[in-house]
């Protein structure tokens, strides 16, 4: 098996829940050796975030589906970072690392000497990534931050949901996921910088910043003086670009150019719509949204979904069914792109997982190992660090591991 683009890079993962573990899982997919450090006894809080549980009713100890989301390809060990013995092991472990990822509240690890400034003094090549709710600076730095609160505060809920009614959060923890993505790309940039200079650096990733960062075109609309609104499934800058009822269901359609608009009108048998000057350009269609969309809804209701979904893509007009999650995971294209892969869990057996997104031609990302059980590799990692069986037994006796 190809060793991966990040083969030879060791990551010590001191993070929990989703943003940090998702970041380190990406690095592991690319070949890095990731050592996930968890608190003895209970581990990552997501181990308790169920139901649903995988393996419930079997002889194996059930695992939460949430924990299994973001921890594949890692080795797992337990360490009590509140004990001096556990801290001593952590320091020895980090001394072998290229990267540390942590998501403790700002200042927490500084109190025990595991902060960047302390570690980098003796390890100048260390890349140290901190992921927190609000970052290491600013008036909110000491607030705890979960995805939902950041979505509320960071603006995305104000533009998500139907035009009438209360704002909605995104249905997946997208702030955590995007923060993990930003962290992973920053770590790769820092590793490239280290290769050139020999120097590591501290990386400060805030969930709040990630949310502000992916407002993207909506933020730019505000800078341009346009007050954003909730459009439901519609688009603020493109018309028509939303869901439409058909004769037997609902489909998503996006007409992103004036040429696509003309082709659509021809397909729909509505040359009168194409001929109306007010609809000829996207700017005109956006201005005429209120009168145009009801007319288009009537057009789409003249044919069944299957007919539209066959005809529109054939004319290079984007259109899609509205799948539920199970249907999306079982879509032929999902399977052809290897976005569902299987890995063998030591207790649960064959386990499906969402596959790596980026396809690298020379060093493909791989799914090699299931998420570790709590403390699964503790003894092996300690032996690699030079601890003797007697010392390991003593650490266990002290509840340090």
Describe this structure in words.
37% of the residues lie in helices and 15% in strands. Helix 1 crosses helix 6 (174-197). The strands form four sheets. Strands 5-2-1-6-7-8 form a six-stranded parallel sheet, with helices on both faces. Strands 9-10-11 form a three-stranded antiparallel sheet, covered by helices on one side. The model has no long low-confidence stretch (mean pLDDT 95). The protein is α/β, with parallel strands linked by helices and 401 residues long. The relative contact order is 0.14. The protein has helices at residues 19-29, 65-69, 84-94, 116-122, 147-153, 174-197, 207-213, 216-223, 258-268, 271-275, 282-287, 289-300, 305-314, 325-329, 332-336, 378-384, 389-397; strands at residues 10-14, 33-38, 53-54, 63-64, 74-78, 99-102, 127-132, 201-206, 241-245, 250-254, 319-321, 340-345, 349-354. The protein folds into two domains: 10-215 and 332-397, Rossmann fold; 241-322, formyl-coa transferase, domain 3 (2-Layer Sandwich), CATH 3.30.1540. The chain has 17 helices and 13 strands.
